[in-house]
C-alpha cells in the first residue's frame, strides 16, 4: 500500500455537482438538447443514456449502499448526486476502502514528462476472476473507469458488482475532469513534488491563510462559479449543454478526458501561479489531524491575480458540464 495522506481530503463539491448535472441531463425529457433515439445512437449518446437510466432506476431501488463494499459503513442518499460522492466517503471512512481504492481517484501525469504508463503503474490487468471493485490497489483513474465500464457492459458481471461499478464510475468521471486530478509537478528549485497542487499555496483577494491549489479547484472555485444552491448550479450548467456541445463532448475515452484535464491544469491551474513570484517559500501545510504535512515540506505560496479566477471559473463550469454528459 502506498501512503498518500495528503490526497485525503473532504469530499469535494466538484464530484457532487457533476453528479447533479448528470441527474438533470438524465431527467430532461425534452429541453434544449432533445435528441431522438436515432440521434442518440448516431452521436454515441445512446449507450450513455442507457447507463443514466440504469443509474436512476438501480440506485433508487438499491438498499445496499451501506454494505455495498465489504465491511464499509458508508451511507449516502440514493440519488445520482449523492451517490457520486460515495467513493470519497468510502476512502475517508473505511480503512480497507482507503487501502484498496485511494490511488484510483486521479492520474498524476507529470507536468514536464506527460507519460501515462508511470502514473497508471504500468496499466495492470485484471484476471477473468478479478472484480474491479477490489483490485488492483495500484491503478489510476483512467484504467478504473475503463474496467468498471467493461463490467457494466458484461452480462456475466454480478448485480452486486455492477452496483459498485456504477458508484465508482459516477464518481471517477467527475474526478477525471478536475484538472488537478490529472497533473502533478515537481518544483525544480527544491525538487519537491506538489501531488496535484496539494503542496502549492495560494492566496486570493484579502485572504491571509494559504489554501492548497488543489482544494481551491476542488471546492472554492466551484462555489465561486456556481454558488451553494446545487439545483440552480445544475440549471446554470445545463445552459452549456447545447446540441452541438453535447455531440462534441459525448465523444472520447477516459484517456482523452485525462489528457484534456492535464492540458487545462497546465494552462489554467498552474499558469498564473507558478510563473509568478512566491510571497512565501516556507509555508507548512497541515494534515487533517493537525500535524505538519510531511509530504510537502516547506511550500511556496503565491498570491493570485483577480484575472486568474475569470479564466479558472470558465474552465470549472465547462469541465462540470462535460463531465455531466459523459
Ligand atoms: Zn475522488
Characterise the protein shown here.
The two termini are 31 Å apart. This protein has 326 residues and is mainly α. The chain has two domains: 174 residues, no CATH class; 145 residues, P1 Nuclease, CATH 1.10.575. Bound molecules: zinc ion. Zinc ion (ZN) binds next to helix 5 and helix 8.
**Helix count?**
13
Mean pLDDT: 81
Largest sheet data: 4 strands, mixed
Percent helix among the residues? 40-55%
Gyration radius, rounded: 19 Å
What is the number of beta strands?
6
Strand content: 5-15%
Ligands in the structure? zinc ion
Q: Strands of the largest sheet, in order across it?
A: 4-3-6-5
Q: Which structural class do the helices and strands define?
A: mainly alpha
SSE sequence, one letter per element: HHHHHHHHEEEEHHHHEEH
Low-confidence stretches: 1-10, 27-50, 61-67
Distance linking N and C termini: 31 Å
Q: Number of domains in the coordinates?
A: 2
The general outline is globular
Give a quick rundown of the structure.
The protein has 326 residues and is mainly alpha-helical.
Amino acid at each position: 500500500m502506498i501512503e498518500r495522506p495528503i490526497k485525503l481530503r473532504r469530499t469535494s463539491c466538484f464530484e457532487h455537482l457533476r453528479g447533479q448535472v448528470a441527474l438533470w441531463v438524465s431527467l430532461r425529457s425534452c429541453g434544449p438538447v432533445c435528441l431522438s433515439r436515432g440521434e442518440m445512437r448516431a452521436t454515441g449518446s445512446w449507450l450513455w443514456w442507457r447507463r443514466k437510466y440504469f443509474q436512476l432506476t438501480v440506485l433508487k431501488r438499491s438498499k445496499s449502499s451501506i454494505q455495498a463494499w465489504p465491511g464499509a459503513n458508508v451511507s449516502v442518499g440514493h440519488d445520482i448526486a449523492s451517490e457520486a460522492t460515495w467513493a470519497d466517503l468510502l476512502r475517508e471512512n473505511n480503512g480497507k476502502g482507503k487501502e484498496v481504492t485511494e490511488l484510483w481517484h486521479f492520474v498524476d501525469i507529470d507536468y514536464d514528462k506527460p507519460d501515462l504508463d508511470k502514473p497508471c503503474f504500468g496499466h495492470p490487468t485484471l484476471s477473468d476472476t478479478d472484480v474491479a471493485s477490489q483490485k488492483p490497489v495500484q491503478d489510476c483513474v483512467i484504467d478504473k473507469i475503463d474496467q468498471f465500464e467493461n463490467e457494466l457492459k458484461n452480462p456475466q458481471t454480478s448485480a452486486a458488482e455492477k452496483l459498485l461499478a456504477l458508484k465508482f464510475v459516477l464518481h471517477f468521471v467527475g474526478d477525471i475532469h478536475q484538472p488537478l486530478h490529472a497533473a502533478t509537478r515537481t518544483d525544480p528549485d527544491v525538487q519537491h513534488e506538489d501531488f496535484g497542487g496539494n503542496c502549492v499555496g495560494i492566496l486570493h483577494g484579502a485572504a491571509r491563510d494559504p489554501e492548497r491549489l488543489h482544494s481551491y479547484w476542488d471546492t472554492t472555485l466551484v462555489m465561486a462559479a456556481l454558488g451553494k444552491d446545487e439545483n440552480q448550479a445544475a440549471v446554470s450548467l445545463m445552459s452549456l449543454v447545447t446540441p452541438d456541445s453535447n455531440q462534441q463532448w459525448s465523444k472520447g475515452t477516459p484517456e482523452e478526458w485525462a489528457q484534456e484535464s492535464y492540458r487545462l491544469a497546465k494552462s489554467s491551474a498552474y499558469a498564473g501561479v507558478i510563473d509568478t513570484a512566491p510571497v512565501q517559500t516556507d509555508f507548512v501545510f497541515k494534515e487533517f489531524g493537525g500535524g505538519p504535512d510531511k509530504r510537502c515540506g516547506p511550500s511556496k505560496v503565491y498570491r493570485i491575480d483577480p484575472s486568474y479566477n475569470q479564466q479558472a471559473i470558465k474552465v470549472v463550469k465547462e469541465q462540470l458540464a462535460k463531465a455531466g454528459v459523459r
